Amino acid sequence: MLIAPSLLSCDFSKMGEEIARMDKAGADWMHLDVMDGHFVPNLTFGAPIMKWVRPFSDKPFDVHLMISDPLRYIDDFADAGADIITFHIESDSDIDKTIDKIKSRGIKAGLVLKPKTPAEAVFPYLDRLDLVLVMTVEPGFGGQSFMADMMPKVEAIKAEINRRGLNVLIEADGGIGDATIAEVARAGVDVSVAGTAVFKAENPSQAIKRLAAY
Ligand SMILES: O=C(CO)[C@H](O)[C@H](O)COP(=O)(O)O
Ligand SMILES: [Fe+2]
Question: Which residues pair with 171 in a beta bridge?
Answer without folding.
Answer: 133, 191
